[in-house]
Amino acid sequence: MAKRKRAIPQYGTVVLNGIEYYRTRVEDSDGNRVALYAKTPEKLYDKELEALEQIDSTTFRRRSPTVAEYCEKWLLMQSVHVRATTLTDYTSKVRRHIIGGLGDKRMADVSLDDIQLALVPVSKKSASVYKSVVILCKSIFRAAKESHVIDEDPTIYLDAKGGVPQEERQALTDEQVERLLDTIRDLPPYVFVMIGLYAGLRREEILALQWDSVYLDAEAPYLTVRRAWHTEHNRPVILTELKTKAAQRNIPLPVCLVECLKDAKKKSTSDYVIANRDGDPLSYTQFKRLWQYIVTRTAKPRMARKLVDGKYVKYMLYPKLGEKARNNGHVVYSLDFEVTPHQLRHTYITNLIHSSVDPKTVQYLAGHESSKITMDIYAKVKYNRPDDLVKAMGCAFDLWDAV
């Protein structure tokens, strides 16, 4: 079968320096007419196609929005189907870590190298933050490709592994729990700490807890988790939409927590179990101030300030266990270990496991949506006691010998 010849357009000719050339004109991406020359129609045709391809590519890149423009559009699209708290988290990370490093670039011009360079500062943060930023980056560029904003997705080979590995969370020992409670017994964070230790609620669940969800007079006292605390611009927002469906749960209360909550309720003038002086839920700043009662009683080196000649000067403070604070005789450094709000919850879950509560019940009480989260914690806690392992193995081998 004969090869079909391509149709070559009819070009005009022009003589330059005594030599005849074929000539045509194309319009570039700026709208300017550009002349092209060649000695044969075939060569001019090839030259024209190449020029048009380059012009189309340039025009496409110029039409392509900046990373900042597209990211803001993407965030707006997400607002339709994600929770307000999730959108706030997305917005913070996208603006700080993606727009911050790539915002002025055109989406079509961004390469994998550009993205990896933008992620260098993020790599100094926790592994979980690094992973979430990478996932957001992949989601944004994948959406741009699906919408034909870009031809190729530069994040295909982007690895989510990176960041600073977090230290494994350690539960408080019984002795540490006792010392912590003795230290803050008559102080504002006491009720918060008791709920964390003996009901295992997340910080946002404790700060949103209202008395209508605490059933102290029931035959078996319990509380219901049905609200979540969140802040926007330091102002508290109480949501009825929880982190997951599994977060809504009923928690039985041990006697020590029942007594604590009964005493707190007698003194309360608020609908909230943890409230500020006006009876409102705490702002983020107010919560930090609440937790400061624990921090200031911890014998840990830290930066402090003192007034010198009318100006505050920073200096390092090296507290010693048992000493009184220099500027406040009511504060005694009573704790030689650090405590975080989440550590209270982790201690609760750990104690459930050490009490031989089955994994499915632990999962329910902890409000874990995924059994994998529970089992990962369960495995680390349950099999982190060599003496328990020896007993278990001994029983197993005794059973095999019997067989």
From TrEMBL:
Q: Which residues form the Tyr recombinase domain?
A: 167-394
Give the GO molecular function terms: DNA binding
Describe the location of the Core-binding (CB) domain by residue ranges.
Answer: 65-145
Q: What GO terms in the biological process aspect are recorded for it?
A: DNA integration; DNA recombination
Q: Which InterPro entries match?
A: CB (IPR044068), DNA_brk_join_enz (IPR011010), Integrase-like_cat_sf (IPR013762), Integrase_catalytic (IPR002104), Integrase_recombinase_N (IPR010998), Integrase_SAM-like_N (IPR004107), Phage_Integrase (IPR050808)
Has UniProt tagged this entry with the keyword Chloroplast? no
Identify its protein family.
Answer: Belongs to the 'phage' integrase family.
* Protein name as catalogued: Site-specific integrase
